[in-house]
Amino acid sequence: MKSAIITGTSKGIGLATALAFARSGYNVFATMRNPDASTAFKETILSESLPITILKMDVNSDKSVDDCIAAIFEHTKEIDVLINNAGIERHGSIEEMDLTDFREVMETNYFGVLRCTKAIIPQMRRRKNGCIINISSVAGQIANTPLGIYAPTKYALEAVSEALAQELKPYNIRVAIVQPGIIDTDMSQGVRPMATSIYPQVNRFGGLFQASLKNPVPCSLVADKILEIAEGSSWKLRHPVGPDAIPFLGWRGSMTDEQWVDWNAAEDEEWFNAVQNTFGMNVRQ
């Protein structure tokens, strides 16, 4: 039986991925900061007799990661797949957000991935086999307000993943980046127009999220893609997921940097009209 470690499994994409892997016959080590709060997850595991072990791990802590990985290796000698899913989000204008928010998001979304990855690589390298899947976002290639805190963490994650893929390919270890679009998660639901901000862009992009979530895309779609990558043999690095992911990336790619800046700095009505003409979505609040 193959084994997989999945971080951030208390809800959303991580939870859906843990279930998808276990139902496909993987021995799953599902990690999260607060296992005591995952009553429904535990009930599902019991009712379906799924091979899932829930473990406490805070990806922000060296000790927590080391202790958890050590506990996992008491259960199994080999980890075939590592899925770095744990992540957090903050949004707002760069001027109005506190530096603490920037540090917290980078600590989880970037350094947290590095902690887990560095703990797992040695045994994969010795075996010359393994797969590391890092959950990024279309925000890993698209930067705009109010995600000026979140997007840099995903840019950093994509950069280190790209370098890691080069280092590990000679050892037959595949590295993949998954780039979800707007998926029906608590994180996406939280990107809403803000009550007050001196920057209008902060509020109007929240409207785009809310309009998109009127036709919600389930987390299971991303989970299925992650499982497909793990089960396959492709060395493809980036995997956009969701009906809006490729259109969003193409939208950004169709503009020069200067055009992108100008368009996002435009007056509200011009911006709203462009979104409606491009995506057929009325995101006016």
TrEMBL record:
GO molecular function, one term: oxidoreductase activity
Any matching Pfam family: adh_short
Amino-acid biosynthesis in keyword set: no
Domain of life of the organism encoding this protein: Bacteria
Keyword tags: Oxidoreductase
Family per similarity comment: Belongs to the short-chain dehydrogenases/reductases (SDR) family.
Protein name in UniProt: Short-chain dehydrogenase
Organism: Dyadobacter koreensis
